[in-house]
Amino acid sequence: MKRRDFLSILSASPKASNSFPDNPPSSKGLSPYTGAWGFEEASHILRRTMFGPTLAQMQQVANMDLETTVAMLVADSPLPSPPLNADFPDDVSTPIGESWVGKPLNATNTNEHKQSRRKSLLAWNHEVLTLEGISLREKMTLFWHNHFATESVVVPEAVYQHVTLLRKHALGNFRQLTKDITIDAHMLRYLNGDENVKAEPNENYARELLELFTVSKGPLIAPGDYTNYTEQDVIQGAKILTGWKVRGTNSTDAAQPLEVFFRPNKHSTGSKTLSAHFDHAVITENGENEYKDFIDIIFSKESVAHFIVTKIYRFFVYYDITPTIESNIIQPLTQLLIDSDYEVKPVLEKLFKSEHFFDAPTRGCLIKHPIDYLQSLFKQLNWPQPDDLADRYTLHKKLSNFQISLGMRYFSPPSVAGWKAYYQAPTYHRIWVNPVTYQKRNAIKNIFVGNGIKIGQKRYKLDLVGVVQLTSNPSSPTVVVDELTKLLLPLPTNSSLKAYLKTVLLPGLPDFEWTTEYNNHIADPTDENIKMSLESKIRNLLKAILELPEFQLS
User: Fold this and answer.
1) Half-sphere CA count of 185, side-chain side, radius 13 A
2) Enclosing domain of residue 212
3) What is the dihedral of CA 366, 371, 376, 382, to 10 degrees?
4) Full-prediction pTM beyond 0.85?
């Protein structure tokens, strides 16, 4: 589906929508981008590499250059502080305001205690996304979470360690991340790796390691023989991975933290021979290091690099990989990843600095996934952050709950394959928006610009006047419309759409009416009548912009 088709389906008012040409897929390659650099280019790269970049961040990057911007995006940064006990006074090991990570559960109310930590983890992670700064790490963490997909938050401590591992390696070495994830407590439990013993080898993780995490399956070429591996490789891989165990998942003992360990007596000894797809490689007995030998052999195959580069392209650029894109983008980046010894940063830098990435057809062509949509509403409209810790965590937990109705909740992909939008042809990212989810998105948008969210006796609402004050001249309706559309929409807005939006802000009134009313409010912010009139106009404008199909795009 082309961009114009998508807009026409969702737009209730065609006159209120941009008119985009149906450009063919970009034929540009990985040569460095040398074109214009300004707000449009800055907003494009930030929308793709961050969650809901703010107007200030876009303006900051617009005043830099591409080289400096990409360096900032891929720069190393400290890991976020761990989640806190925000509102569970019965936690005997962790006072309110301190982190529960590494602390034992209560023996008397273990289930209630775990539920408190689950809520804390979800709230904390949502807050981390809002505080990401100009950085690619959080988008890449979500990429890896979708790639090494695990479901549910059964053991909060294990999920915290898991997502921290993803953040640590987000811009690092893919092979090392694969090794570390293989013996990660959350992954071991999710794919039954902790039940994989020599007496009864469990093939779950070995199968997904080959099919979904590394070489990929490919078409069936003979019974039990796929393009890139065979059933025999799954069987041998399961034996290689035997012996790993997890303990302390529900520990109430401070002396027994969550840990992964190797049981030699549960490991399948002897040599394991792989298929012709891996050149009949023989993995000799190597105990707790055997899984590393297996992964090294897997990563000797070009199909690993090709598979992950293709996923990176679909995640950050577009789903439709034409023969030209395969030749000009995917193949060169595949070779670059191999030459870089599976360090992903050089690949990302090359892609984000390329003329292909900034070519017109790649701009505003991705549908925002639910997390990106919600963060755009929260961050770009500068929603208030409560000072009170309990209220702040409650707010972020409620916001993370919105993800459920939109089909993409962090830590809850539908299967080990991840979210369908990243692999299910031919629909791909179009899965995110249909008549039902579009209405749900609009309902959530109305909460953001309407009555807000009640927490206890308080109601947290958008500062509507504060939104227009993000612009360079809030007393000018022309500037307000121009700069808010630049902030909220991924492509330049045509004159007819701006004129329409201006009539929404000032229905039948001259510009000076807005200027006078705004200045009167600034002179006397205690006058409720003036404030309510001004807020009503701003709310109508924001609703009109956020209801545009273009707001669904990135």
Assistant:
1) 22
2) 192-300
3) -170
4) yes
